[in-house]
Amino acid sequence: MRTSTRLVLLFIVCLWLTPVAGLWAADDSRALYDQYLASYKKYQDAVSAGASEDEVKQLAAAFNQARAAYEQSVSGGQTATPDNEWSSSEDQSLPLPGRSSGTSSGTGSGSSDQKAPAALTSTLKELWSSNGRKVADKAIKVLDRYIAANPDSTYAVKAKYEVAKAYEYLKGDNEASTKVLNDIAGDPRAGAYAKLAQDRLKYLDACRQYSQWKTVLTQKRNAMDAAYSSYRNTSWLAFPVRGARWVGYVGKLISFQKAQNDFEEFELKFEELAAPYVPPVDVAFDLFKTANGSEDESATVRLVYDNNQGWYARWKLINEARSSIDLQYFIVEDDIFGMALCGALLKKAREGIKIRFMMDARGTKGFTRKLMGQDFIQELVAFPNVEVKVFNPVHTNLATMLLDIRKIMSSNHDKIVVVDEEYAVIGGRNVSSHYFVLPEDMPECYRDCDVVIHSPAVAKQLAYAFEEEFKPLKQYSIQKDLWGNIDIMSKELEAALKAMDFYIRGDGLFQVKGGDKRTVKALTEYNAELSQYKLMTRFESFSLLEGSHVAAVKIIDKHSLFGERNDITDQLVKFIDGARQEIIIQNPYVVLTERAEAALKRAAKRGVRIYIHTNSPASTDSLATQAMFYGDWKRILKEIHTCRIFTYYGKRKLHAKNFCFDGKLGIIGTYNMDYMSEDINSEVVAAIKSTAFARELRTEIFGDIAQSKEYKISVDANGKVHAVFGPDDLPGKNTWLMKVMSKMTFIKKLI
């Protein structure tokens, strides 16, 4: 009855939306989608059962026809699904064990309890509402009283099971949950709930094993780090001692790597077992504990897709900083944007503002080179209130690179701005013209995204993520020359600051009278670059938090190679497993890892809609990534049968790294869907729980999808996949090389 009512309401909403989104409304009706899934299942069952060739051919044809009809129904994306669909009691419920598909269970007010006592139904409904964590203690007491007063009731066991779930999900108390589940498992009156309790106990035992694995890894990592520190701190004058300590470090490194490899095998099995017990994405978000423990349920957050406004946000925050500035970037180009940024930092350094700045050695070459590069940065570090570091210089890993080539590939991929411990910017943008210029002024610019956040608690979370990469041993600091900076670059930085500020305020090109030749030459180059950006003149009308949302925000972090923290991958798997309706992935580099692919396959089995928006060979800036995707995309569409893939195909390149789950949760950050992000680089993302924010993010992504091409396949009677439309139809430069590289799957984990 509930399903019928929901479909009728959904149909009415679709009719209402028809004038503005007729194509999208058809998809919301679900009819073609359900038909498509049913035809695929019939085809799979027939092949598995060894049906006749004629029957398989007929079913394959029916499947292709149903798929084509479904795909045609969404030609350019969908509007946001109505809030009432996401907030139904069915979606707020938590999953029961023993369901291989991982579908959600009903709440206490579900169909199985329609005749349950009203007080019990009301309590369970409140317990599994969005306020569940706040009312958990009260609800558990009410349920305990009901159980004590009605020990022989058919609903007493149900109430017990809900108490066990509440301890696990809402209180984070697995020990208390285990005690209740043991009572149920040993109760001869428990019936089917005894089996459910037994299965859940197996899951909780696996959780304990998972925690034990984490403890072992931490111990081995600490031993490895201590050995490395001892080696690094030993002088070359004590060569025999230094050599012995290097051997000791290598032994600890090998021991850690073996444990890490064994854990990864366990982790895949654990996530498969845990999937049916993962709660909906909003509850999974609530359960996540930030690294520093701070939280803010009412942060002010703004989504920024517009490139100019992405720059304006940074410019405003840095130039108006009152006490501190923390910056981390993978790429800082020495164009007008990078020079102006350093000019602004120099101005703030003179004002006494505390500045910490880290760049990556692999991504940022101009400013980090020791010859002819660091002179600009040395202007900053001349001040005692400024620290500048370079992440992962290659020379610190040459001694052990043969043990793991990834050690010289590891990068700090974070893009972090924290100002005055109050404001933060996080997203995919580096510091370069390609990230901050509009496509009207630069057709080949990136389509990227940030969030601007106003929240002291969230700023502290992001500052904590900053410090975890800024403080470790495997960085080096840029120092001023002992005899003072030989080559004074401050005037060029000052000129860049003035040229940028003058131009973006609409005052035209900055000019100086007189001046030394080098400064005049630099200013001429800055103005020549700025003059190309006709639309980048609206800073005066920019409002930092215009169009913002009030939402719960959490920073989720991941360390670089061998670091302790990998919260992002862990949480993304949980969010995928917790999705009930829809998963949207917007990412420039898609090379699905074992964990990501396994989670998406589980979601497809649950019937979750999956959209992937990425680059094509025509738009990519990474030939190697496209080569791996070229070898995978047809298999992905076949095996993850609810997945659809859309790609950019023009001059503009996608660089945004965003996720949207069930219209409830948005993820914005630096994390790519590849092995580099999962295993090698440091990454950081912001998770925003808000239907309004998710709706805006979803609308932006589907706007991009409307300007993209969709990859499509057909499946013949023998189960072989054929490309209907794919990367071969959107060729780029060196397509032949891409096809050759697609066969080199042994490099996939290095891309």
Overall 3D geometry? globular
Give the fraction of residues assigned to helices. 40-55%
CATH class category name of the largest domain? Alpha Beta
**SS-derived structural category:** alpha+beta
Question: How many discrete structural domains?
Answer: 4
Structural Rg: 28 Å
The helix count comes to 25
Q: Give the N-terminus to C-terminus distance in angstroms.
A: 49 Å
Major sheet description:
17 strands, mixed
Q: So, the CATH homologous superfamily of the largest domain?
A: Endonuclease Chain A
- Into which percentage range does the β-strand content fall? 5-15%
Output the CATH topology of the largest domain: Endonuclease, Chain A
Mean pLDDT: 85
Total number of beta strands: 19
Quick structural overview:
With 751 residues, this protein is of the alpha+beta class. The protein has 25 helices and 19 strands. The chain folds into 4 domains: 2-78, no CATH class; 105-277, no CATH class; 299-488, Endonuclease, Chain A (2-Layer Sandwich); 549-750, 2-Layer Sandwich (Endonuclease, Chain A).
How would you portray this structure in words?
The strands form two sheets. The protein has a 17-stranded mixed β-sheet, with helices on both faces. Helix 21 links the parallel strand 11 and strand 12. The protein folds into four domains: about 1-80, no CATH class; about 105-275, no CATH class; about 300-490, Endonuclease, Chain A; about 550-750, 2-Layer Sandwich (Endonuclease, Chain A). The longest helix is centred in the N-terminal third of the chain and has 41 residues, at about 190-230. The chain is an alpha+beta fold and about 750 residues long. The chain starts with a helix and ends in a 10-residue tail after the last helix. Helix 14 packs parallel to helix 15 (about 375-380). It has 25 helices and 19 strands.
